Amino acid sequence: MAVRGVIKGFTALPVEMQDGVNALGDSLFINTTYSFNSAVKNTFKYASELVAGNGGTVTEKKIMVKIEEPVAPLNEVSFPDVVFDRKVSVFDENVWEFKGNWKTFEIMGGRPRQPQKQSMFAEKNGEELIIKFSGTGISLTGNWYSDGGTADVYVDGNLHRTIDTYYDFANQQHTESIWHILNLEPGEHTVRLVVNGEKRPESSGTRVYVTSATIFKTEAKKNENFKFSFE
Question: CA distances (Å), 104 to each of 23, 143, 210, in order?
């Protein structure tokens, strides 16, 4: 269907597929600042710039691509020498420091089904979570929920980026990496997550959930087939 859409256009797709794309068109993909619509727009922009930059022409109705001899690209390795070190539950009191009113979030699980601790969450501006670790990378796992809000993440005192943990499409919600950083200098590091108490308009809340941290180190891999959750 994707190929058909490229050849004949979006309107040539079945109505139910058009409706599905229109429904999620402006929703951000997890771990990105891209929606379907912005990804399409930017992909066309990058492709047009690439064509023009390599001797082709781009007009409103036609794109002419210059014929070139193919050249094999350089081999690229995803996350070279990044190795799993350890995983730390958010309920490990010896590792985490909490500031503000962080609360326990429970889900039903097990046999027989009963409440189980799943994550910690905070929702008010200025509430903080701090973890100190030794390594070269770290990934924070949390919930992408319909009441998700935003938070600022600092590494060694410097703002790395702002994250948005809202997600609500087709009744799906996820527990995945909400933030990560790699290629740090080997040694001791401090990560501080600060809740903003803010959200996008469609979110029903400002909660930021954290379930665990995965810590990485840098050394030769023993298994090249291992994939990270954020690849």
Answer: 33, 13, 10
